[in-house]
Specification:
about 190 residues, alpha+beta, ten-stranded mixed β-sheet, 10 strands, about 35% strand
Length: about 190
């Protein structure tokens, strides 16, 4: 189980378990509650749409348990990241997100540690491409570039450079139209 020493003590990054689900929901809801860009609640007054997205992803064929990670501090979930099965013109790829860290634990390196770990595990498992929708200034540090620069076309042209991709490994990489796991289509 990888452990990281970050700004405020030891952070342990591990695969999520069923016992973590409620804590993960709380982390995701808190992280996206005030986010500049988040999915709308699926019910009036409900949590941000990313909470329901994760629930739907867990029930989808695209769920990859080995790439659903939590960061814990003092046995408390403080962050979460997930990659799910996606496709580029039918070839396997990964869709990354959401990435969430409790607001009072942000800017401590937890999100970065989660990103590095999930990308390392994805590469070790033989994946070739991972894509996401997010802030280019943040994700550039993890090797992401605008998807179109790598030949990976966004599901929505309006996303522009916020749709980013990264090649993993040294082998051939698929190019073409990117499609997230089905639950992303319901956002």
């Amino acid at each position: 189980m990888p452990s990281r020493n970050l700004a405020h003590g030891a952070i342990v990054i591990r695969q999520e378990t069923g016992d973590d689900i409620d804590a993960i929901r709380e982390v995701v809801a808190a992280a996206f509650a005030l986010a500049e860009h988040s999915a709308p609640p699926t019910s009036p007054g409900g949590p941000p749409g990313e909470v329901d997205l994760l629930d739907a992803l867990r029930g989808d064929a695209g769920w990859l348990p080995a790439l659903a990670l939590v960061a814990t501090a003092d046995h408390r979930v403080v962050g979460h990241v997930v990659c799910t099965r996606a496709h580029i013109d039918g070839a396997p790829a990964l869709g990354l997100g959401p990435l969430s860290v409790l607001p009072d634990r942000q800017r401590e390196g937890i999100g970065g540690a989660l990103m590095r770990e999930v990308l390392a595990r994805a590469e070790q498992s033989g994946e070739s491409v991972v894509a996401l929708l997010g802030d280019p200034a943040y994700y550039r540090r993890f090797g992401f570039a605008p998807g179109h620069a790598l030949g990976v076309r966004s599901p929505e042209a309006a996303w522009g450079d916020h749709f980013q991709a990264r090649h993993l490994g040294a082998g051939p990489h698929p190019v073409g139209h990117f499609a997230y796991a089905e639950p992303f289509n319901d956002l």
